[in-house]
Amino acid sequence: MTKLAVLDKTGKKVSDIKLNDEVFAIEPSKSAMHLMVVNYLANQRQGTQSTLTRSEVSGGGKKPWRQKGTGRARQGSTRAPQWTHGGIALGPKPREYGFDVNKKVRRLAMKSALSSKVAAKEMIVLDDFGLDAIKTKEVADVLAAIKAGKKTLIVLPEKNDVVYKSARNIEGANVTLVNTLNVYDILNCNTIVVLKDAVAKIEEVYA
Predict the structure, then answer these.
(1) Were 191 and a residue from 28, 95, 112, 149 both cysteine, which residue would form a disulfide, CB within 3.0 to 4.6 Å?
(2) Regarding beta strands 123-126 and 13-19, do their DSSP bridges make them parallel or antiparallel, or are they unpaired?
(3) pTM, 2 dp
(4) What does the pLDDT look like over 26-50, one tens digit per residue?
(5) Dihedrals φ, ψ of 49, to 5°?
C-alpha cells in the first residue's frame, strides 16, 4: 500500500497514512480524465445565446421592389439574411451542452486523477487546520508551512464554514467537500491538500 506522511499545521510530520491502492495507485486513464474535464466544462455552459431568424426580426412586410424589370436581383423582403438589419442565417439558438458520462468511466476518471496527483507527489495529507475562528492569515500560514503550490485545492470531509471563509480570499486556493470533488478541480491545481478524515471518506466512496 502507498504511504503518505500526515502533516500538522506547522508542516511537521505527525504520522503516516496508508492509502488504498485501488483509489490512489492505479494506472491513470488519460481518456477517462479528458472526457470528464470536457463534461465538466460543457456543463458549465449556459447555452442561452440566441439570434433572430428572418421570421423573428421586425419589419420587412413589403416587397422592396417589383419582381421584374428593374435590372436588380429579385427580393421578397428587406429582412432576408443578406440585408442589413435582416435575420441571421444558421445562428445559435438556446441549447443544452451537457452530456452524461457512464458511472464506471466517472469513477475511473476520479481514481485516475487522484492517482496521478499521488504519483506526482502533489498530494498532501493534513491532520487538521485547527481553526477556532475565521482567520485568513492562519490558513495562508498553514499552506505556506506545508509548501502547497500556487493553486491549491483543499478537500474537507464535511462542511466547515470557518475553513471555507478563511480560505476564500486566498489567491489560488479553492475549498471543496468529498461529495463535490471533481476531476477538473483536481487536475486544475498544483497541490491537493486533503484532510486526514477526508481520505477515509474518499476511499469509502471509490474503493
Answers:
(1) 149
(2) unpaired
(3) 0.83
(4) 999 999 999 999 999 999 999 999 9
(5) -65, 140
